[in-house]
Specification:
The chain has a 9-stranded mixed sheet with strand order 3-2-1-4-5-6-7-8-9, sandwiched between helices. The model has no long low-confidence stretch (mean pLDDT 94). The protein is α/β, with parallel strands linked by helices. It has helices at residues 17-27, 55-68, 82-94, 117-127, 138-145, 152-163, 209-222, 227-243, and strands spanning 3-11, 31-43, 46-52, 73-76, 100-102, 133-134, 169-173, 182-188, 193-199. It has a single domain, classed as 3-Layer(aba) Sandwich (UDP-N-acetylmuramoyl-L-alanine:D-glutamate ligase). The protein has 8 helices and 9 strands. Helix content is 38%, strand content 22%.
């Protein structure tokens, strides 16, 4: 049984965060475990409240999973504050988690902040150097590098700069750029650039797509895929999940995490 651990916040609306990650793991045939960093009161319209978990308890959850079940890969999502990031990094080092995917979640789809400003530096300096893959979108990359990203060349430049933070692979997601009819992501490993392209779909239902994409990469790594293969398969998955997204609520509905999964009843 392949196993993957998600270290992230809870989305009460079920479209993002730990809920999206566990659904995605299951869609890939991977057993999912979790360590919760924060509770959110959240729906398709936005984030109404956040309750951050005690950092020591976040660490305890990871220890409980790793000491008994173990994990073939892990990912981080919403980490909320510097103290939590530090405890997560300590746990990653303690258990020598090699297949770590860091999704540097900073801003919700609604625009609500999900990471404090002081924590942004901590995640760059303390956690990202431990990562096999990082998956910032263009907005997150702009914040991390303090530079504007408007073109594909800007994305490639940003990927090259982010690679210097010590991670193995960088994926700069370009779905938010409206400069073409395709959603383009830049993948960089320090030597070669790979451009992943997919069509854009006329839908507002894109809540949780970043979580889902990074969870799909994590699942692929857990199954033994090489990083580029895991990223490519995740791109295919999230493209289908957006194409067949779900209309729920009055705001941004979720991607379809069960796309391609056969319903048995």
């Amino acid at each position: 049984m392949y196993k993957a651990l998600t270290i992230a916040g809870s989305d009460s609306g079920g479209g993002a965060g730990i809920q999206a990650d566990l659904k995605t793991f299951s869609a890939f045939g991977v057993y999912g475990t979790s360590a919760m960093t924060a509770l959110t009161a959240q729906n398709t319209l936005g984030v109404q409240g956040v309750y951050e978990i005690e950092p020591k308890f976040v660490y305890m959850q990871i220890v409980s999973v790793m000491e008994d079940i173990g994990s073939d890969a892990a990912k981080t999502g919403m980490l909320a504050n510097s103290a939590i990031i530090i405890k997560v990094a300590e746990a990653v080092e303690k258990y020598n988690i090699q297949n770590l995917v860091v999704d540097p979640v900073m801003i919700a789809k609604s625009g609500d902040p999900l990471l404090s400003e002081d924590a942004r530096k901590t995640i760059i300096e303390r956690l990202i150097p431990l990562a096999k893959v990082i998956t910032p979108n263009v907005f997150e990359a702009e914040v991390m590098l303090a530079q504007k990203i408007e073109t594909l060349e800007d994305m490639k430049s940003a990927a090259a700069e982010l690679k210097k933070t010590g991670c193995d692979w960088v994926v700069v997601k370009g779905g938010h750029l409206q400069s073409s009819d395709e959603a383009k992501d830049v993948v960089y490993n320090g030597q070669d650039f790979e451009i992943l392209q997919s069509p854009r779909f006329a839908t507002k239902n894109t809540h949780g797509t970043g979580c889902t994409f990074s969870a799909a990469i994590t699942a692929g790594l857990a199954k033994g895929y090489k990083p580029l293969q895991a990223i490519q398969k995740a791109k295919q998955f999230i493209t289908k999940a957006i194409e067949h997204s779900i209309s729920l609520g009055s705001g941004h509905g979720p991607a379809n995490h069960l796309v391609g999964v056969r319903i048995m009843w």
